[in-house]
Here is the input.
Amino acid sequence: MSAGDARPRSQPAVIGSEQVAYVARLARLELSDDELTQFTGQLASVLTYAAEIAELDVGDLEPMAHPLPLHNVLRDDEPQPTLDRDTVLAEAPAAEDRRFRVPRILGDEP
Amino acid sequence: MSASAIALAAEVRSKKRSARDAVEESLAKIAAGDPEIHAFVEVLADRALERADEIDRAVASGSDPGPLAGVPVALKDNICTSGIPTTCSSKILAGWRPPYDATVVERLRAAGAIIVGKTNMDEFAMGSSTENSCSGPTRNPHDHERVPGGSSGGSAAAVAAGFVPLALGSDTGGSIRQPAALCGVVGMKPTYGVVSRYGLVAFASSLDQIGPLAGTVADAAVTLQVIAGHDRRDSTSLAAPAPDVVAAVNRGVEGKRIGLVTELVDGTAPDVAARVRQAADALAAAGALVDEVAIPQFRYGLAAYYLIAPAEASSNLARFDGVRYGLRVDAPDVAAMNVATRTAGFGAEVKRRIMLGTYALSAGYYDAYYAQAQRVRTLVADGFAYAYTRFDGLLGATTPTTAFRIGDRTDDPLSMYLSDTCTVPANLAGHPSISVPFGTGDGGLPVGVQALAPALGEQMLFALAGALERAAPESGAVTA
Here is the structure.
């Protein structure tokens, strides 16, 4: 099966620059115009390759999220030592009053 | 290092050689060779010597420091080391000092091993050449113009160059086995859940495993036995004791049914395919019942992998937001700070994978890409399951080609991704797999042969690997 095969209706369209820009916004990344062009071509080529599996008739198979049959792993509810707060905060970009400090979250009142 | 880890530990435990002497030899080799190879991003000379003296004092006082007593070890830089920078070769974690040790680090230390440094890698383990590192590429010790493979390329090169007898890497789609093959060393990915990932910076959580890279199969076996076993801090860790694999190495393969996987030979370069077929013949000569087996499901593994792994990565890497650790690029509000930090902190390949994964998970594409890839993952696992009704172990190439030239594939991500085509099936199924050096190909470059076994089939895997090692033709000498 090559990328040049006729595509059945089930196969999604290959990504365009508008979608790449949208996905970058979702992922909190900013792209320059050059990056947008480059990434669009590269992602389209990967997705064209990946899309070959869209044609497979595997509708009756269970999707596999995980290789182990582990469910609801529980442990005893016993107190355990945790990381030292000051050691953790010392590695933060900014801290204040023993908390992580961040810039403003909400905008000004309209 | 000239000696194997096992031989070195035996010398240290019997006072024939001091741990300090072993560590000094390792540090001297790194100082002489690593400016050219660039396997290490951090060398911990003072700490390592201090630790060596502790080991020597323990031996002198009559106690046994453990099976890896005095053995210098290198760690891939995505494995957390308390108070020692752990960067994942990313600008976004430059200088970050974890507040805790990974479980594998605690277990190595408890076995007497001495951590001499952190190794270079593709940023966040995303890559197959160690070229996607914010500190520049690592060179293959066999040919300095070529890549060592990746993403654990620094660990593979450190062992191949003789800087250390042992290293740890992580394998999400082949990141231990592929560089091991390209550098002519042994690299092993355990069954999913056998080794704790507590303290491994996550890439794709349903695929990642930590494993050893070593000069010999026996050294890899000892290391696995040291780092394996249940850990309550990793909920995906199996509640089973570490597999006893050391004795399995010399067990032999007589009467074992071994399948040479058509899909792991066809399509590989002629020099690689020739060595794999030679390895199959060697196993038959050693008494194994070798037959060829087709697992056609494998041809869809790579496409499924390159949807599943980026999808999980896009979620895992959301934590790098400039708030709790690593880089922050200031901006007037939090959302702008997140964007500025991630834009400045991540390299191009990481951005590509985050976007690919975000797209595959986004509304309207989830079923066509991500859910479909998960069904194909089941298909690949079913392919293995059928093959294992007829065979005890499987054999194939580790990589489609020997080491390629630095810069050859950096502009074409898809061509880079194809390097992983032989290794991803084991990750998708969660099975153990090992790459063993088996002679050289064109230009004297190392070739790796891949052995595979069912989940928790580590003993079978190491028996197979030991047999391959004993039958292997001489590999080329390192030029470093």
